[in-house]
Amino acid sequence: FFMSGHLFDACSLEVRQFVTKLIGELEGSSEGYSRETVLLAGIVGDMRVINGQRGKLAIFKLDDKSGVMEATADEALINANKDLLADDSLIIVQAKVQPDRFSGGFRLQVNKMWDLASARCRFGKYLTIKVKQTHTQQGLQGISQSMRAIMKNFPPKRELTDQGEFFKGLGIRFEVEKMTDDIGATAQLQLGENARFFPSDAALASWYAAVDASSLKLVY
Question: What is the pTM (predicted TM-score) of this model?
Answer without folding.
Answer: 0.86
